[in-house]
Specification:
alpha/beta, 3-stranded antiparallel β-sheet, globular
């Protein structure tokens, strides 16, 4: 994802802008990376799913023509109501990662946000996209559905229609989930025996 920042509302020096972009990159990649991997052909092949946020733009190959970006963001001083196209220097890591989710095409999952009106159930999520930036109620994690867009993309670039792609949790995430399931089973078994 190539993001072009408009710094005209701030008084940051070029060095401060570079430092701020590095912090935003770390914030976004810290939330989005190392959560899920892609399995091909029922685990025969495993691919890491890595998001790389950069700020240089794609070269057009035409001399003198400016690079192309996926997204433009206007930067504002202080704190405020961030959205996909307006970020504040006072935003926290969750806000950066949340707004990046919109750049990937995800909807808000909280009342008052840009929710997917095609959903039958009201939003009541406590994950990243359920994080209301106006409150302190930020989501606590990533859902597999946030990464679903990757599977059709991979299938489209793979000419073999027999390939099967799936998302799997990172090993550490999977171990945590398995530990929770086993723990719940033990509690249930203890309650049945009591």
């Amino acid at each position: 994802m190539q993001i072009d920042f408009d710094w005209s509302n701030t008084s940051l020096t070029a060095q401060q802008q570079t430092a701020q972009m590095a912090a935003w990159e770390k914030n976004i990649e810290g939330w989005w990376n190392d959560q899920y991997r892609v399995s091909k052909d029922w685990g025969e092949y495993i691919f890491d799913l890595v998001f790389d946020v950069t700020f240089e733009g794609y070269p057009t190959g035409v001399p003198g023509e400016p690079p192309l970006f996926n997204q433009e963001v206007e930067v504002h001083p202080g704190s405020g109501r961030a959205d996909m196209e307006n970020w504040y220097l006072g935003d926290n890591a969750q806000t950066n990662a949340h707004e990046f989710g919109h750049m990937l095409g995800l909807f808000d999952e909280y009342w008052g946000g840009g929710i997917n009106t095609a959903l039958k159930d009201p939003p009541d999520d406590d994950h990243l996209m359920g994080a209301d930036p106006t409150s302190l109620a930020f989501g606590d994690g990533m859902k597999q559905s946030y990464y679903d867009f990757v599977l059709p993309w991979m299938a489209a670039i793979d000419p073999d229609d027999s390939q099967v792609y799936a998302l799997i949790p990172e090993p550490a995430t999977g171990l945590i989930l398995l530990t929770g399931v086993v723990g719940m089973a033990l509690v249930r078994r203890r309650n049945l025996n009591a």
